[in-house]
Design a protein that fits this description.
Strand 2 (about 40-45) and strand 3 (about 55-65) form a beta hairpin. The chain is built from 2 helices and 4 strands. The protein is an alpha+beta fold. It has one domain (about 5-100): 2-Layer Sandwich (Alpha-Beta Plaits), CATH 3.30.70.100. The model has no long low-confidence stretch (mean pLDDT about 90). Strands 2-3-1-4 form a 4-stranded antiparallel β-sheet, with helices on one face. This is DUF4286 domain-containing protein. InterPro entries: DUF4286. It comes from Williamwhitmania taraxaci.
Length: about 100
């Protein structure tokens, strides 16, 4: 069975950076852990010399197999979208990638 990492990279406006970071660590990661995806969650800040317009963060969620990916898409991603839209409307821009662990 293959293992995957779902990566959410988000650019967050400077004024919202601390609030976003707090929300991810205090609410979203515990939510993901409660889903029991079976693997790990890593939250990082992307280091960039040109971050005058905000910070870039990465949330990496380890999942097992395509079933884990599908479960995250059904349960985890809608929560991320709902909360970022509610709490940080127009202040967070993200893209998502799927990585296969070799």
């Amino acid at each position: 069975m293959s293992a995957y990492i779902v990566n959410i990279t988000a650019k967050v406006e400077s004024a919202e950076s601390n609030g976003y970071k707090t929300w991810v660590m205090d609410q979203f990661i515990p939510f993901l852990n409660d889903l029991a995806l079976g693997q790990h969650v890593v939250f990082t800040r992307v280091l960039d010399k040109d971050d005058l317009d905000g910070d870039t963060f990465s949330i990496q969620i380890g999942v097992g197999g395509q079933q884990g990916v599908a479960f995250f898409e059904k349960e985890g991603m809608p929560e991320y979208l709902k909360m970022t839209t509610t709490l940080f409307a127009g202040k967070v821009y993200y893209f998502k990638t799927l990585l296969e662990i070799q």
